[in-house]
Structure formats: structure tokens, C-alpha cells
């Protein structure tokens, strides 16, 4: 079935790029779309087709993956000038892999549905390295027919597909809960490591002990070494969590649900971004805290 | 060597009880001390000796484990009326297993050292079930001679002993960093689950997905099911984190190090305690958030 399928990937950032090359590797002809010409050249070198507009990629596609950064960009690539939706054949599956407010996902899906398209609410996680290996996770919801039609493509990009229900929005909601925890845990890792340094502890020792103790988290294990080694090469940037915790904050506000830890962590990411750290690795929120504490972490 | 050793355990709460029965199981004659007569009766039934004062247990002991709740209690059982220190033979090892401010640990250790005692700064983690199995973790620091002399007893109660340095205080500092993360992660778990419920998600589904995603933490895995099942039987109570995050807050303040997430989580634990939830499981901070959000979690 993969042999008769064509895919499009709109947005070749770190996650979209990983999905696009994973599709090629699975033998699925794939057209990549990005505003950056050099990224399109690189995708051609991988054996992919390219288009400069979403419309140019969507016409022949059975599955269109949307991997842009936020809801506004998703609206534009779907329904703006040369948008994908008007160019696609009815019955095309749109996999919305953007981390955006569940309310935005639902609104976009309703418009696509009205045009005869199938929609999967399909936010992803796992990071760029897993994406490149075709091993991201998909927190998916949508009609079974959409999952069935897109199955070979979904299998090509992911190691794990959570089927969370038939209603579009559930996937985005679960991703939002994941991002709440992930963002708070990154900020907590930064706070813990900064305090450890402030009281004179050896950071590698702290990392080793906590990694085997009740204070551990997935993010502590992943971002902790960035702080220990003072390496803030962006795998995922501070500004991503300004956006993602902003989504949590606005949706929680709409539900009248207090999220005090989210607000505290969001304030730290915003302040770090305002200090010029927005494009650095999200663990760089530790630099902000260290500066406030009057100490120096590795790499400062 | 275990055959010639005697131990005392002061404070038979959940962790101290676990240590005491683990010592008996390893063949080390052990005297338990507690203010609750019914706990002493239970320890006798396990084959242990008992004493009603610390002095009554410390005279014959080679290793004295202090498992009381806080620094003030540790001061009392060591140096108050019928305290352990004056009754112990010089060279006795005092293992201070209390989570308390590193500054308090250092002050107690200096007094013990001045009386010719050996001291291990030995806060523990792992929870009551691991304690009962003799599998807690020890975040230890102190003189090698103290570790060597106490080795059979330490091995009896723990699956993992971190040797963090020769200076008393390091163990308590690392434990403090662990508690910072643990406390923030519990509160974050509560916040995430409350928001999940507020937006209409199925809590078991959220738990299953997050457990395999980047939002996971040791505490989410451990406390999440308490919230999903609405079971707030106290394995570790809200008031413990009022104390432990209070330690973090005061020590961070002394180091002029900002800890905004700690402060936010501490406020939640304090507010939950003030609402009468202090003796419930620490995950009950979710009930506080749910009440603020005007929703009901399981068990409410």
C-alpha cells in the first residue's frame, strides 16, 4: 500500500524534516514544502520532491502532514493564498502535527471537514533525533477512516501511535497536558541545578544521584546534562516553551482552571527570551536563574 | 561482622520502621525507640528490643539510626533529656536519616563529633515499601571510618548507598535538591491532572500516554495513579512537603538563590494543609486545585 501512496510535508523544521526523510526511507514519494530554499535543496538531495507553496504539494498527496510552528501558520498554509486545502482532492488526510491550542485544532479541522477532507489531530513528541529515526510518538485522535488511510505514512514516521479517540481536539489536549509537565520539569531542572551550584555541590554528582531517585523526570535526564556541560545548543528552544506554556495558560484560563506552576514556569521562559536567550536550548532558563543568584554555571 | 553488631533505631515511622525490621531480618539485634507504645509492641512482636527513651537504646548500640521527622526532634532525641548522645559509647556511629536543613545537620554533627562520635549524614529516599524491603536509597556523606563501621547495618537497610563525600552536609544538600524536584513534580502532576479533567479528558488515558512521553517523571508515575483512582491514603503526607519544601525555601533564601517553582509548590502544599488535607497523601494537592477550578476529581 505504501507503494501507491504519496505524501506531502509542510514545514521542514526539525520534526517535519525527520518525518519527511522517514517517509522517503519507507518508500513513500514525498513532497516537502518550506520557505527556506536551502532546506528544499537539501530535501531534493535526499531524493524528495519539493514545492514552494502548500498548494503545489497537496494536489497529488494522499496524506498531507502539517509541521509548522503554531496555529496562525497552520491557518495560513491550509487556507491562505496557495493554501493546501483548496488544492487537495476530497478524501485527502490532513495530519495536523502542530502543537497548538485544542480550540484552534478543532476550528481548522471543521473547515477541512467541510471541504470533504479527513483530519487527524496528530501532535507529536520525542525530539529531533527520534524524528529523524522515524520514531516519534503521535498523540492522535480522529476518525478511524483517516487513521486507516494514512496508516503506512503514520507507521513510517512513528514508533508509537496513541489512538486517543475519534474527536479531533483530544490529541491536542493530551499534548497540552504533556507540555505543561515538560515545561514545568525543564524549569524545575534549571532551578534545582542552580540551587545545587549555589550551595556548592558538584553538578555531575547531583545529576547522577537524582537520575536514580524520586526527583527524576524525563526532562531532568534529557536537559540536565545540557546544564552540567554548559551546552545550550538548541535541540528545542526557549521560545518553543514560551509558545507551548502560553497555550496551556490560555486554555486553562478558558476552562477557569488554575495552573500556578505553569504560570511560574512560563514567566521564567518569557523572561529568558526577553534577555536574548529565546533561540538557545530551553535549559538556558538556568542561566537566567543563575544570573539572578549571582553565580556562574558551566558555559556562562 | 553483622553477628557482633547492635543497632538502635530512634523513630519508628514508615521509613524508620522499614529500617528497623530490615536490620532484624539481617540478623542485627536492634532496639527500637518510639513515643507510641503500640508501635513498640509491634516491634517486639517482630523480634526486636525496645526502649522508651533514646538513652535507653543508645548505650549498647554500635550504630544509632535517627529517623525522626525534623531537625528539632533530632536535636531533642540526641541532646535532650535522656538523649542518645550522652548515653552512647565514644566511637558509636550516628546515622542522621532525617530530611532537614543541611545547616542543621552540620550543627548536630559538630556536637556529636565533639563527644567522640562518628557521624554519617544519611538522608534516605525510596518510600515506605522500599524501606520495608530493605531497599531504600541513602544519600550519604561522612568519614570513611563511619561508613566502614556501619557497613553491615547500612547494607541491611538499603539497596543503594551514594557516597557523596567526606563532609557532613553534602548528603542533606543533595537530598534537598531531590526534594525540590520531587515536591514540584508532585504539584505539577496535580496541576496537570486537574487541567486534564477540567478540559474533559479521561485521566487513565492521560496517565498512560504521559507515562511513555517527555512529560513523565518518577512522581507522575508514582502519584498519578492516586489521583486517577481518587485514593489519598497517605504514603507520604502533604505536611511532609510543607516541611521539605520549607527547608529548600529557607536554604535557598540563605544562599540568595531564587526558587520560584519551589515557592509556588510550597504555597500549594501549605494551602492544602490549611484546608485540612495535611495528613492526606501529598497528591491531595490536586483536590485543592480541583476545588479552585470548580470540578470534581475521583474520590471527591
Main beta-sheet annotation of chain A: 9 strands, mixed
Q: What percentage of the residues of chain A does DSSP assign to strands (E)? A: 5-15%
What percent of residues of chain A adopt helix (DSSP H or I)? Answer: 55-70%
Q: Distance between the terminal alpha carbons of chain A, to the nearest Å? A: 53 Å
For the structure shown, list the relevant keywords:
about 55% helix; about 300 residues; alpha/beta; Rossmann fold; 2 domains; N-(1-d-carboxylethyl)-l-norvaline Dehydrogenase, domain 2; 9-stranded mixed β-sheet; homodimer; globular
What would you say this structure looks like, in words?
Two copies of one chain form a homodimer. By secondary structure, chain A is an alpha/beta fold. Chain A folds into two domains: 2-166, NAD(P)-binding Rossmann-like Domain (Rossmann fold, 3-Layer(aba) Sandwich); 173-293, N-(1-d-carboxylethyl)-l-norvaline Dehydrogenase, domain 2, CATH 1.10.1040. Chain A has helices at residues 14-25, 37-45, 54-58, 71-79, 84-87, 102-114, 127-132, 144-157, 170-198, 203-211, 218-229, 238-254, 260-277, 285-293; strands at residues 7-10, 30-33, 49-51, 63-66, 93-96, 118-121, 124-125, 136-142, 158-163. In chain A, strands 1, 2, 3, 4, 5, 6, 7, 8 and 9 form a nine-stranded mixed sheet that branches. In chain A, strand 5, helix 6 (102-114) and strand 6 (118-121) form a beta-alpha-beta unit. In chain A, helix 9 (170-198) crosses helix 11, helix 9 (170-198) runs parallel beside helix 14 and helix 12 packs antiparallel against helix 13. The model of chain A has no long low-confidence stretch (mean pLDDT 96). The interface between A and B is large, with 69 and 69 residues.
Amino acid at each position: 500500500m505504501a507503494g501507491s501512496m504519496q505524501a506531502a510535508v509542510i514545514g521542514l523544521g526539525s520534526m517535519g524534516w525527520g518525518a519527511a526523510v522517514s517517509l522517503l526511507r519507507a518508500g513513500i514519494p514525498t513532497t516537502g514544502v518550506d520557505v527556506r530554499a536551502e532546506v528544499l535543496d537539501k530535501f531534493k538531495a535526499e531524493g524528495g520532491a519539493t514545492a514552494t507553496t502548500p498548494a503545489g504539494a497537496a494536489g497529488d498527496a494522499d496524506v498531507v502532514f502539517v509541521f509548522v510552528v503554531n496555529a496562525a501558520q497552520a491557518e495560513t498554509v491550509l487556507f491562505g493564498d496557495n493554501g493546501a486545502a483548496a488544492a487537495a482532492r476530497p478524501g485527502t488526510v490532513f495530519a495536523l502535527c502542530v502543537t497548538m491550542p485544542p480550540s484552534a485544532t478543532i476550528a481548522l479541522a471543521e473547515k477541512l471537514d467541510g471541504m470533504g477532507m479527513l483530519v487527524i489531530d496528530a501532535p507529536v513528541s520525542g525530539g529531533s533525533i527520534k524524528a529523524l529515526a522515524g520514531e516519534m510518538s503521535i498523540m492522535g485522535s480522529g476518525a478511524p477512516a483517516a487513521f486507516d488511510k494514512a496508516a503506512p505514512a503514520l507507521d513510517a514516521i512513528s514508533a508509537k501511535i496513541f489512538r486517543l479517540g475519534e474527536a479531533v481536539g483530544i490529541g491536542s489536549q493530551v499534548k497540552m497536558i504533556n507540555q505543561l509537565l515538560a515545561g514545568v520539569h525543564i524549569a524545575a531542572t534549571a532551578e534545582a541545578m542552580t540551587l545545587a551550584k549555589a550551595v556548592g555541590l558538584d553538578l555531575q554528582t547531583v545529576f547522577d544521584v537524582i537520575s536514580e531517585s524520586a526527583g527524576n523526570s524525563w526532562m531532568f535526564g534529557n536537559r540536565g546534562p545540557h546544564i552540567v556541560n554548559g551546552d545550550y545548543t538548541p535541540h528545542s528552544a526557549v521560545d518553543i516553551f514560551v509558545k507551548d506554556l502560553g497555550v496551556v495558560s490560555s486554555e486553562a484560563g478558558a476552562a477557569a482552571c488554575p495552573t500556578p506552576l505553569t504560570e511560574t514556569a512560563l514567566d521564567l521562559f518569557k523572561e529568558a527570551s526577553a534577555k536574548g536567550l529565546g533561540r538557545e536550548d530551553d535549559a538556558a532558563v538556568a542561566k537566567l536563574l543563575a544570573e539572578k543568584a549571582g553565580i556562574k554555571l558551566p558555559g556562562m
